Amino acid sequence: MGTESFRDKVVIITGASSGIGEALACHLAKEGAFLALAARSGERLETVAAECRRLGAKAVSVPTDVSDEGQCKALVASALNTYGRIDALVNNAGFAVGARFDNLSSLSLFVEVLNTNFLGSVYCTYYALPHLKETRGRVVAVSSVAARIPFPYFSSYTASKYAMAGFFDVIRMELDGSGVSVTTIYPDFVATRFSANVRDADGRPRGQNARGYSRRTMTAQECARRIAKAAVARRREVTLSTRGRLAPWIMLLAPGVVDKTARKVARKPPST
Ligand SMILES: NC(=O)c1ccc[n+]([C@@H]2O[C@H](COP(=O)([O-])OP(=O)(O)OC[C@H]3O[C@@H](n4cnc5c(N)ncnc54)[C@H](OP(=O)(O)O)[C@@H]3O)[C@@H](O)[C@H]2O)c1
Fold first, then answer.
1. Is residue 266 pLDDT above 90, yes or no?
2. Is 92 close to ligand 1, i.e. is its CB under 6 Å away?
3. Atom of ligand 1 at shortest range from CA of 16
4. CATH number for 164
5. By residue range, what is the domain housing residue 145?
6. Is residue 72 within 6 Å of ligand 1 at its C-beta?
7. How many domains does the chain have?
8. Which of 122, 241, 245, 269 gets the highest tally of CB atoms within 10 A of its CB?
């Protein structure tokens, strides 16, 4: 398929106010997609939508907290009201808490991560599916290499990304024959605000203490390009790093090696 694959296709992207979601919105805008962009920060989202319109797309911003089922239902309804159909849903919104599990003062942050990353994807998918069946559309889930290599200090995040992987593997099979494809993406580190937004045990963003990305870290634009390509090809899953692709095999043969790598990669957050 060529670069016009998303021309006139209606795509909902969650977490579109920043990072990978923003880059994907701009990527699809250049192809002439009709976009419904969701995140909590309405002002930032509208800036991204305006940029997408400038790039040639139709784009609306729909301020949404995906951890709230009612808001996910309203997001789907809004996309449908605006464009009359839905061709693709990209479940991308997410964040992480970086802290030892036994240092959390309560479970509220843990639950918030699960509600956003996992249940947010479930809610959006549930309400979009009837419309995606009409268009033989596409569901995309942005999981993480954390669902391949479980990282210490990121128990809720890792659990949420494993949960996403399992959930989308099951609905892929259930949707077999419906015409709707389900593509799960497992990115490794991508240079976005994600790391700065990681919250400590008290819920404060790490900010300047965030991991420094190297020149070799994948850009959000490259990640977006790979997501779009995988969705167009209706790929089952794409893992965006060699260590992510190898981890499940090494896990079978020598799980201790994966643990060792994970400990090295997940440097101890400052406030654990
Ligand atoms: N960057 C990486 O290294 C990396 C690696 C693997 C996987 N990922 C995954 O990629 C996805 C995008 O992350 P990113 O790197 O682009 O990080 P980012 O720049 O921090 O963007 C996260 C996006 O999610 C939105 N979001 C967070 N909580 C939300 C909520 N409750 N409701 C709606 N939107 C919400 C944020 O917008 P608001 O704050 O305005 O709501 C923002 O648009 C995440 O699912 C992340 O787990 C990232």
1. no
2. yes
3. 43
4. 3.40.50.720
5. 10-265
6. no
7. 1
8. 269
How confident is the model over 132-143, as pLDDT tens digits?
A: 999 999 999 999
Q: Give me the mean pLDDT over the 100-123 stretch.
A: 97
pLDDT value at position 24? Answer: 98
Is pLDDT at 130 greater than 60 in this prediction? Answer: yes
Question: Ligand 1 test: best mutation among 62, 92, 218, most atoms within 8 Å of CB?
Answer: 92
pTM metric for this prediction: 0.95
* 192 within some domain: yes
Supply the residues annotated as catalytic: 157
Q: How far is 250 from 118, CA to CA, in rounded Å? A: 26
- Ligand 1 contact, 259 CB (< 6 A): no
Q: What pLDDT was estimated at residue 142?
A: 98
- 249 is a domain residue: yes
pLDDT digits (tens, 9 = 90+) for 2-35: 445 899 999 999 999 999 999 999 999 999 999 9
In a domain, 80, yes or no: yes
